[in-house]
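ENTRY TYPE: paired fold submission
RECORD: A
CONTENT: sequence, then structure tokens
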Amino acid sequence: MGDFINSFALLEGDGSVTLIDCGVKRAPATIVKGLAHLGKSPADVQRIILTHAHSDHAGGAARMVDETGLAGVEVHTDDAEYIRSGSASPRDTTTRLGAIFSRLPGGGFPATPVVREITDGELINVGGGLRIHHTPGHSPGHISLIHEPTATLITGDAIWNMNARMTWPVAAFCTSYRQNQQTAQVLGDLEYAVAAFTHGPEIRGNAREQVRDFLQRATKKQ
């Protein structure tokens, strides 16, 4: 799938793996191939964290839970019930397309057990420290993450970088497009050297400055 929809694998010193997001329903086969490229298998995955309850990020989660033998996934408290039930978080009905999509069937994904609910500001013991930043709006429990030892930001869907061009996510896909724009501002205040996007390629040079520039320009247009 190229960098159209990205999942991430964080490798521990003991050889174990933490997965962040599981793509669409058919993505696990690609994820397993990616693990093999790293010399890993599903049995090495000790933790799965989801950035939010949308089918392009949680669609493959149930299958990956089965593949890895884990009891379930970790997700922010405000998205946990959506993951357990396999239902996408609500659409922003203040937008025309959001209102239309909210009335259409579909958008769900296989129900997936949740073993732990994540909270804002939490430092998870993954690869030396994975900091959780609650950035709601795209979904109620949407999170962005910073892997502190490598100074790497994972934006989730707070910001897209499709075709190497930063944009807001599609408004109709958000629970609250306005809230997404507001809470994403925190990403300009954090410290990191690399920005990794769940949609689009990563930025390795002057990442924080480029994200801040986007946020400032996008805010002026509102």
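RECORD: B
CONTENT: sequence, then structure tokens
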Amino acid sequence: MSISEIAKHLNVSKSTVSLVINGKAEKSRISKVLTKRVLDYIEEIGYKPNALAKSLATGKSRTIGLIVENIGDSFFGPIALYIEEYLRKYEYQVLYSSTMGNNKLAAEIIQTMIDKQVDGLILAPTDHIEKEVKRIVDSNTPIVLFDRKILGIDANYVGTNNYEASTTAIQHLLEQGYRNIGMVTINSQQPQMQDRLQAYLTTLDQHSLKPHVCLTSFSEKKEHGWKEIREWLDKNTHLDALYFSTNYLCVMGIKALQNLQNERQLAFITFDDHEIFELVQPPVSCIRQPLEKIAKSIVHMLVTQLTAKEKCIAEDIIPSELQIRKSSL
């Protein structure tokens, strides 16, 4: 049944029915009696307004764009589910997409989300995406960046204490007596990766220890990354411990350690937990990010922008925790 048919049945105007459906009855001074009459009939017949028509009428699509590096991994996947859960309470639906670390793809996805008239965006930025994000910020479209910041752009941000948490991880290895500590990370200028690397370099320098860094490529992480790590380990036989900057690098590192030319035991710890880390032998020590707290803060920050009359910029740094298991002892 259409709005016209509902109006005809109730002997009221189409505009009255439309205003009631779109929650504008009180503002339009439609009586409570008439509003109830329309709503009761809509409920009786099970009327569902067309989403596009409702969007045009209200100026709101009730959708949020969530753009991450890889929606299928063990960090972004759970956060996406938490975000969806919390946004649903505010009657918003989430549109997902993955950039796979490709800035050109990220720019295309952002534009597609804007074309779909999402009410707001949640973005884990790639490298070299500053221009697109600045355009969004300047247009006053609600946006929250998370996991990695974009320096020089005033945008709402939620993240964790990458530098401090990484320092804690390296200090833990030092306390266990390890002195030849290597780090495996990706070749990226993303601030969170740079913070984790800098914490490693600074902490070793404070103890007059030499750093050993293996830089891998994001694009190679699934097919060839573990071989790259193994070759690096074969060339650095003096290492006694490793720090991985992400959990997927740690997964590759475990495979690399299992395929070393010369069998040897290395302690290791990683940034980010993973569901398999308690199951492998030895169980893997990690820096555990508070995923639900991060998601909750993102949603709160976005909803605040969606409902605020004035522009507001906020930053929330939520501390991560060291989870010690056997791999680092």
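NOTES ON RECORD B: The mean pLDDT is 91. Residues 63-160+291-318 form a domain with the Rossmann fold fold (CATH 3.40.50.2300).
STATUS: closed
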